[in-house]
Amino acid sequence: MRKKILLPPLILAGLIAGYLLLGSESQDIPQENLLEIESTLAAPTEFTLETLGLGEQTGMDLKGRSIIMANVVELNDDTYRMYYTVNSPNFTEIRYADSEDAITWEDLGTSLAGATDPSDREFVIGGASVIQLPDGRYRMYYRTSQDEYEGQPDYHIRSAISEDGTVFEREEDVVMEIQPHEPNSEFQLIGHAKFFINDEGLYIGIITANFVDDNGPSDIMVTTSKDGLNWSESKVVFADWHDPAVVYYEGQYLIYATYLKESQGVATSSDGINWSPMESISFKEADETPLSIDEHGLGDLDAIVTKEGKLLLYSNFASPGKPSRDIAVYSVSGS
Questions:
Q1: Among 86, 87, 117, 325, which residue has the least CB neighbours within 10 Å?
Q2: β-strand 282-284 against 46-55: which pairing, if any?
Q3: CATH class for domain 11-23+34-332?
Q4: Sequence spans of domains, the chain
Q5: For the residues of 28-65, what is the DSSP string, one character each?
Q6: 282-296 per-position pLDDT tens digit
């Protein structure tokens, strides 16, 4: 039987950690990380645009707001749900949409709304990562911040609970706190992240973060937990990468992510903790026209394997020089 996991995507809110702390020089994809490298199977690296699955092109009235950060999960009835962030200068919310095929989507409403007070630490919310808990409920992890703290957002991770995965209620405690709000925290910023539970029941977080006193680009780190709320020390796996998508595909875990503002890549793992080096990936339209970060705003990747075994990727999608107004859906080229 195909392994099934549920994963898990303000204009300021769209600028996640790696973009906010960005280095300007173009670099090749680094071919090393700081944890043990393991050899795994090859991962798909070439993707073709299937459609713009949700947004202005599908008739949504966004009222000038941006739509970003898709997170797609398979539900127990073999249908699919997308959680995504809608931004405006004065309000953010995480909405949800459902689909029979993970390609065509129907927007159904708000899952979690941001605060209305800019000084509230939940004013800027987004980047949902939803998992189904062993008791059947759904937990949403999301990154959040007040409007601005000492010149930059103070993104950290909180969580909310839902009985059916539609409307969520906030849980009381902060899941991953940052300094100076928690003096013992190892982080100064935690941005867009993905969470999942492995076969042994271990919660794994693949997070975009900066350790204290690290003012460079954010890194992708791995952290683990036995209960999904209390997390171990984090370890850097990919320096200068951000916004990870995690999916289980053909017997291995895959991370799809973005390197600075330069490129995107994929890495593989047998356990979700130790990862291979990143390999470059590419996106194109059906007529072979290349799609890029600069021209089309590709970012905030997510991924899912459908019930038919088809790997799909999702990204923000925008016209040149404009904010994202759609979520794009991609399939493996040639599949």
A1: 117
A2: parallel
A3: mainly beta
A4: 11-23+34-332
A5: PPP---SS----------EEEEEEEEEEGGGT---TT-
A6: 999 999 999 999 999
